[in-house]
Sequence to fold (235 residues):
Amino acid sequence: MALFLILMGPQGAGKGVQAGFIRQQYGNIPHISTGDLFRAMRTRTDDFAKMIQQILASGALVSDEITCKMVEERLAEPDAQNGVIFDGFPRTIPQADWLANYLSSKGEKLAAVLLLELDLYEAFRRTFGRVTGADGTSYNIYSNAEGITWQWAEHPDKAFPPRLDATVNATGEKLIRRADDASADAIIKRLDSFVRDTKALIPYYEQHNLVRRVDAAQSIETVSAAIKTILDNTK
Fold:
């Protein structure tokens, strides 16, 4: 049976890192983020993509029906036949119902909902302080700054906010900061979205005995080991 999982947790909980670990351990199944799918729509020229582009440009919310159709399109691709790690989907009860029905129609079902639990203040610190190398190596100025030098670089005219400059000591590589990580407002909006939308699904999946809670405040290796134990006992 294929391995279909949902990763839940606030930004900074390590979903991307743990998705990479799961892929390495369990057959390189794709990590599907609806955010990535929506961004990919911007480069397409077919009618379905144009419809989504128009909705996003208007500032309106994309309906559950259209979101599910987009996910269904992705699930039809060859690399998704042996399983998927969902991230950011489902976000609503109708989307969750659709996913259950879709998987059932294929003779499949969710193996688990991995809930990476993290205090929201810690989630903010992890996100706001995050910088990344070109090879994907991640550092954090508040909690994982060993081997890097960083400083706030003020604008000559004192424009706000100051820029975060971070460099790897051993190589001199300039580290990258995502634009949305640099905005406290953007981070808070993403946390609000998690509290408002994603957390509402936890009781839904608890009713189906699918939620597996993991303390994401632990080290990456400890979280990975906990996830492996869960999945080895699930499969």
